[in-house]
């Protein structure tokens, strides 16, 4: 095996083991081997003998194996490397090691513990699923149910390795799978014990923020049907010393800090608490805060858990008083006195002592006296001796520890009483052991010693310190016992496997530590000698060690006992994992565990009932020693049991219990000391692997035949090595004949009945032979392929050569042809060119001659033309001059005439001067007229400005402005006309002669009037232009406004559409929450009924006891349990006694429930009733929620019509025929015969909706005759009866569909005839007069519950067959699975896709037979399609054997059948397709290539419905199937993760799909058909003859 190219492991001081590769073959004569480390130079590794060869590495096929025992080479580096690969590369924290589950603490919250994961593991075999704590719990549960044998789960590991969390998840799994759908309080109480024990038993250490400081064994009892009926808890070695001392960076128990943080609560103010830094018992560790922890909230959780477990509020306060008293006791100041401090005293006014005494109800003076004194008995006389200061402090701390221990024991006892199983129902149990998470300090003097960091401590995790004392001795003693039990159990399982396979085998030798155990517990062993020394009056640690030396060294030397060389006060024990040296100092004191009797007697006389009860019970157990250890009266000491003796007894009881059960082991590993997520420290991991027994398991497995293959798996994997016939029918025979030729040594393998077994390393040998055979075959194939390629190359070269020659010859011929053609063309070109040159010269000469002639002729013509033009111009000038001379003579003559006239007129004007003066007044009037015209012009200007400012309102005032402008224009024209007339009148020739001055004045006035008229005319034209511009601006603004309105309307429509979509999404979410709340409400009401029945049964069994009248409960009718007398109050879900795998999470009880009501079963019943009432109030508040409805009313006003007040008193139609009349005394008979007691065969033969139609006709008849109380009673009775019928047929699919139809029809009929829902044809529908709102609300909720029950029945039928049908339609040869924990063979009737389709067909027929609406069918099958796909997808993620290409083809085929079935019935909607998308994409992921970067990009773009975690999980689980397939490389997985960082998902998704997800259902508002009594056919089998047709 050590040949060239082999991978080996080399020790390394930092990484423990590093890989290397052999560069040459190894021979026995060589003393060195040549190695090559990755990225480093070659080195020579010394090998003295063949046994010194470095361990060989496993082949690649074993990379990341889920079971360590399946590795080819079983040794430490292989195990460490496999755990590292799974933890760091695959993010898988669980790995099997045979029967042991190795769990590595991730220090992070992983989404692998939800309800969907519990459902996926429930009912599955360990061999089929990925390693998980739920798989171990499920295996224990199935074994218990199948074999009716008790089981135990042993969880071990260092402090901080995750033991407590693993135990909590284990209990949660049992509470879910062992609980009922109508969950009773037993499972809730089992889970509620965790917060209490964490508060009083857990503390912060340097390695763990929530470390268990005690060992516990929780025994969960199950009934015959697998339901939890009770539990019991046993505790071991509480670390009492932590109460009085904490190391740096550590804390006391959580409960102290919770009380200090909640000190401001009213009920806790009397405790006189302060901050933790104020108390000595809580301030020694330094910082008292834990990151991400709220002590106030933790106290609320603790108190809620106490309430669930039935601890009354007064008792809780008493417990808190005791805990507060312990804190105050630590602050009591003890002062030394005397010369040598041999005395001590406490001040009388010590505040802390006063508070301590008041809280515990004891006398402060007595407590102060006996804290500083002790009583001695000497010869029958009593002597009181004072104690020194240090002794008094020790006594105080011892009392504090003892009080806390008694409180702890009382709490555990109270939990056990509450969780006690009911008599007569005991079945089997499963025990969960969580013990010794870290160092445990047992005695009051332990805190004096040096505190050191531990290297390892856990159950079956060896513990050793720099200084080891009594506590380490006890823990390692328990480790020895548990390791012995573990080794023997592993050997026993190997033996059973060999016997089952009918192998001839020799006994496997394993290390038995019986001698070490006898050294400790045997006769004259260490514990016996220690107890004997404790009984001696002058016994000491030194004398005890000397006795050990004499007994085990001087006499007969014990092989496991040694004496240190340099010490006489220590001894060495050779434990199974290491050699430990113990210091004897303090052994006797810790073994005695002395508390003075006088202090206990003071506490027994306490005024507090709880304190007195604690120490009275202790007195009955005789656990307190007398204060005098030197007294001669042995009667006071013989009853005292030493700590070692008690520990040995409890350990022996534990071992007896474990021996009587089938153990299951969980080993928790702490990957690093930094508490950082996903950091793997190989040094820390290998330390724990060496100490926790994992390597011992591997060694036992390696000593036998660790590798085992079924014949089919072996044949499929190594068929290339087998010779002869290779038919699948003769697989076993072929393997038996071929294997001796492959492995000559017959001792290296053995044939079993169904498997072939190999020793360690033989699978690697077969892998090497297989690789060589494949390599040889590859060489042959390469030679053939290369020859074929050479021949192909030669043929192609020959063809290319011939083709090139042909093309060359053709090119030469074409070149010659082109030459000849060019020559001929040249001659033609020359001839043509010469002809063109000659022709061009001729044309040029001819063109020049023509041009010259044209120029000459033009010159002559232009000259003649100029002569003609000159003559014409001279004639024209002569004519103009002559005309000008004549006009000038005329003008001179006319000017003389005018001058003469002016002179005459001037003279006449002077004569008329007086007359003009008289007319001056007329001129002033003219001037007034001009002033009025100016005012009007100013008014026009103002109006024009107003028109400019009011342009925005042109749409409304355009017509008025036009009219005003027209009127104003006419006014102006009339004014102008008057002025013109007046001007003409003024300019008329005067009758009389005026003076020249008057004429000038008139002329000036005329000129001024003309100017004003011109200005007016210009202003009018400006107004006209402004009017035109305003009209244009108006048109432009109008167009702009229209565009803005259209854009605004488009934006509004878009916003409305978006708001509509958002509101629809919110409406669906509100509907889903509402329906989920209805389901929770119904489940709690069923729980209420169950608790009431249980309470009645308890009262019947305990009827002779007297019950307090204040806690009695009156009988409750079904109507009084709901806010409406006909509201739904039944559960519609199947119980897990029939179907175990229904997952239900325990609801949390509100802290506000009255504590007094929980003191008895009747009080608990009253609390549940209050819880139901609270949920009903929440439902009513949800019904009355109006913001979303108002918003919808604004967007869709037609969808929510309002009630018209005017329609309150509408006139009914006179015709009320076609109804049914039921008398008041026959109502109960009607409901009984028609609904509750109807037989199934009769109900299925009825027309759809007949019961609802009959009830509705009776209601209408009662309403028409005015009997509203009868109509209301009929509605209420019908709803109650239908609810009872649903409860009666919780598992009947057809009857549930029938009542769903009737409930929906009755709701639609009542809604149609409600006063609010009047149709557009009031003459056809007569509204009912009484209020229907409550009835409609109740019916609406009831039909939702009926729909949920219908889906739940189908999901229950599909749950056990879905994953197997889609993923395991048939077995694929060669697919290898982990060895099953169930030795029985698989079932012959394996589920297939046909069985799934058969169940879907039953539902489809049931709903179609009742004529349910198509929308409801589509919604139901969308829900079921999602359930089927999610279940199969979750199983695919958790099962490694189905993550292969061949299985993906089968899954895709099964999904295609489901799609075809839905498509053929018209049910393949978008929702159903989207529900199947994750499963389809996961199957495609298994089929596509997974090597290159391009494949990764295609994968990321294609798998849009999968999250990055899901894709990485599938790639990590991918198993190669066939020789041509291989695993997905880690580089490819990292590449996919990097691409997913760039693609941000819409929301973070969980690891598994939520199988319990419920799609909200909406019932369409369909108009029901008209119902008349004459059209109904009521069969006689219903016995409804008492109904009368109206």
Written account of the structure:
With 1590 residues, this protein is an alpha+beta fold. 56% of the residues lie in helices and 8% in strands. The protein contains 45 helices and 25 strands. Strands 5-6-20-7-16-10-11 form a 7-stranded mixed sheet, sandwiched between helices. The protein has a 4-stranded antiparallel sheet with strand order 1-2-3-4. A 3-stranded antiparallel sheet has the order 17-18-19, with helices on one face. Strand 10 and strand 11 (228-236) form a beta hairpin. The longest helix has 150 residues, at 762-911. Residues 180-184, 437-463, 620-639, 990-994, 1101-1165, 1182-1215, 1318-1323 and 1379-1388 have low confidence and may be disordered.
What is this structure's SSE topology?
Elements: E1 7-12, E2 16-22, E3 32-36, E4 42-46, H1 76-89, E5 94-97, E6 100-104, H2 115-121, H3 133-147, E7 151-157, H4 163-177, H5 185-201, E8 202-203, E9 211-212, E10 215-222, E11 228-236, H6 254-261, H7 295-308, H8 313-330, E12 335-337, E13 343-345, H9 351-360, H10 364-371, E14 373-378, E15 381-386, H11 389-418, E16 428-434, H12 470-500, H13 514-521, H14 526-535, H15 541-555, E17 561-562, E18 570-574, E19 579-583, H16 587-592, H17 597-604, H18 609-621, H19 635-638, H20 643-659, E20 662-669, H21 682-691, H22 694-703, E21 707-710, H23 711-718, H24 731-742, E22 749-751, E23 755-758, H25 762-911, H26 913-918, H27 920-949, H28 954-987, H29 996-1101, H30 1161-1183, H31 1187-1195, E24 1220-1221, H32 1227-1236, H33 1240-1245, H34 1250-1264, H35 1268-1288, H36 1293-1312, H37 1333-1359, H38 1362-1367, H39 1393-1409, H40 1414-1438, H41 1445-1464, H42 1470-1487, H43 1493-1502, H44 1508-1517, H45 1530-1542, E25 1588-1589
Parallel strand pairs: 6-20, 7-16, 7-20
Antiparallel strand pairs: 1-2, 2-3, 3-4, 5-6, 8-9, 10-11, 10-16, 12-13, 14-15, 17-18, 18-19, 21-23, 22-23, 24-25
Helix pairs in contact: 2-40, 3-4, 4-5, 5-6, 5-7, 5-11, 6-7, 8-9, 8-11, 12-13, 12-20, 12-22, 14-15, 17-18, 23-24, 25-29, 27-29, 28-29, 29-30, 29-31, 32-35, 34-35, 34-36, 35-36, 35-37, 36-37, 36-39, 37-39, 37-40, 40-42, 41-42, 43-45, 44-45
